[in-house]
């Protein structure tokens, strides 16, 4: 019943939209979802205004050019169990903070929810998002902690028209890295055991708006075949 648990938490979240277009229109599933906007702002007046008013709690602000950290926390521990923006300002040193449920608590590669994304704004700009975490090596000693970033990066590019949503669950809900040095990529879900301090590393190249939508439907993400870095996923959101 894990899907039911996530569905209830999403439906009990702060804001839900039930007006998603049918697949084949904007590329997103139909039905209830949580919206998250990542907005690029210029350094200066806009940057200073990133304290950030009038966003209804569904926006994060990042530099229009340069790097930002979007910190992630398990909403069962840091929020109400659903999706919630806790710190909108990704232009400062400590970064933004976004709470979301554990996507794959069983660590079986099938998510409890899926995330879709698209880039909007003036053509010719893009942003890269990479999921990172700190591996604790199974100890409480921080001296042996190691930063691990996924080998796969999501590129949000607004050059293609029309801009359609795509399922990006494998990029944003997992870290894929060679953890044991055997040359093969290992799969770690957000908030997986032995890891902490998960975040999205956001490199912005002038993209003004990235839209993320979180839907209560499953995506199955495969383990890479030995010797291969290819990572497939099966989208179950249109069944």
Give a summary of the structure in a few sentences:
Strands 3, 4, 5, 7, 8, 9 and 13 form a seven-stranded mixed β-sheet that branches. Strands 2-1-14-6-10 form a five-stranded mixed β-sheet.
Q: How many structural domains in the coordinates?
A: 1
> Which whole number gives the mean pLDDT?
85
| Assembly level | single chain
Number of discrete helical segments: 4
Distance between the termini: 18 Å
Largest β sheet strand count, sense and barrel closure: 7 strands, mixed
- N-to-C series of helices and strands: HEHEEHEEEEEEEHEEEEEE
Low-confidence parts, pLDDT < 50 over ≥5 residues?
Answer: 1-24
Classification by helices and strands = mainly beta
Q: What fraction of residues sit in β-strands?
A: 35-45%
What Rg, in angstroms, do the CA atoms define?
17 Å
Number of strands: 16
Name the helicity range.
Answer: under 10%
Which shape, going by the Cα principal axes? globular
